[in-house]
Amino acid sequence: MNALTLWFHKTGSPPTFYRLAGLLLPWCYGIALLLGAIGLYGGLVLAPSDYQQGDAYRIIFIHVPSAWMGLFAYFFMAANAFIALVWRIKLSEVLAMASAPAGAAFTFITLVTGSLWGKPMWGTWWTWDARLTSELVLLFLYLGVMGLYAAIEDRRQAARAAGFLALVGVVNLPIVHFSVNWWNTLHQGSTVRLLGPSHIDAAMLWPLLLMAIATHLWFFGTVLARTRTGLLELDGGKDWVRAIALGPEMSAVAAPAATERTHG
Amino acid sequence: MTPTRKRRLIVISLVLAAVAVAAGLTVLALQQNMTYLYSPTEVEAGHAPEHARFRLGGVVLEHSIQRASDSLKVDFVVTDRFKQMPVEYTGILPDLFREGQSIVATGAIHDGRFVATEVLAKHDETYMPKEVADAIAKAKEAHVDHGE
Q1: Does residue A123 form part of some domain?
Q2: Residue ranges making up the domain that contains A139
Q3: Do A53 and B123 touch (CB under 8 A)?
Q4: What sign does the CA torsion over A151, A156, A159, A165 have?
Q5: CATH number of B40-121
Q6: pTM here?
Q7: Is residue A188 within 8 Å of residue B123, measured between CB atoms?
């Protein structure tokens, strides 16, 4: 086993990951809150008004980062589901299932903020164009994954079944992203592009990018927190969980008794 | 990689590929009837349904808006800069409705006129401060003046 595989296996083991996640967690939340506060101040106060929409455009500082996160969280969930299905790595199952509620929340925020903006700007709360419909399908996929995970009693079987659904649903991601190019939609095309020039003024772009970084960090923070809980639940009878539950000085005493009662 | 893992990898990759192909074919099939709107050129060419409701998309032609003084009735012309289509609508228009703005109107054709029951403004993907927009407009004007 080479050094990289060894490192991978070590990090992937529940006790190590639990500790590592505990160390990273405050940083994720802390930096996310800081950047989020700066980004919101920049977006809502410092950035100039739009030439057409006035101040109503400021909803993009919530809407667009949420939309990106809805897609990113799904990709993260599907990638972990893939690893979980092929290599049966427990950590990946927990990570995949931990990202579903966060992704669903981001997608929901995207739909609500878009709707609030759509009423004054477009003249309607909702229309069945390709972008809006595929985004709604994305929300339903998240809800389906969460529902399926909750419906099966055995946690590991549940994670694999829900992971399979998550993996199949990944075809929706390019549809959401490219829907504005493939079809005539009411929703406008992409404003910020990785390739080629963005159609947004620099004074409006920096708060948007800050918000994007903040939402990513917040997402990882919440996934790490949920994963820690998930690992504790899954490994409930194991020694390392017992050691955490009883505290360091008690675990030495409890260890012999624990090994007798452990069955998993 | 153990044989079991290899088998799982292959099976799951095949499932993914199959789903991707299915989705691709669906998207291709929907290309025709998932059209959200028709442009005046497409309407002229007869692509739009003749006696049914459909969405007409285009730009509001400059100086074509005529508001009735005693009702909410508005007449205007929608153009895609090639063909034009006269539209009439009675109701409240969205904030972004103005000359030169992209709009989507839902309705049907009666006697060569498009009678809309709903008019939505389509926003483009450009965001900039008013000062920048003014500066660009001024620069364009200067360029046109210079050209002539």
Answers
A1: yes
A2: 23-236
A3: yes
A4: negative
A5: 2.40.50.140
A6: 0.84
A7: yes
